[in-house]
Design brief:
Blueprint: H1 7-16, H2 18-26, H3 35-49, H4 52-68, H5 71-80
Helix pairs in contact: 1-3, 4-5
Length: 81
């Protein structure tokens, strides 16, 4: 049975595996065991997670403009973001 990881668990695993990741990154050929890819995905997730509220608000704003078909507001939103 898979147990969902908590954010704290993910951070700890990233820290614990940082040296292994750096060694893999330095290799010319990355092994296909998935550790490297998993580390990259988790690292990107943690980076995004810090901005999740800002991103969610921006997407709600965009959705509002798209639903109103307000092209001028959409253009302004794109320029702002």
């Amino acid at each position: 049975m898979l147990v969902p990881l908590k954010l704290k668990d993910i951070r700890e695993r990233l820290i614990d595996n940082k040296s292994e990741f750096q060694l893999l990154e330095a290799d010319e050929y990355v092994p296909a065991n998935g550790v490297y890819d998993t580390y990259i995905l988790l690292h990107k997730f943690i980076e995004y997670y810090a901005y999740r509220h800002e991103c969610e608000e921006a997407l709600k704003e965009l959705e509002f403009f798209l639903n109103r078909i307000d092209f001028l507001a959409i253009i302004q939103w794109i320029k702002k973001k």
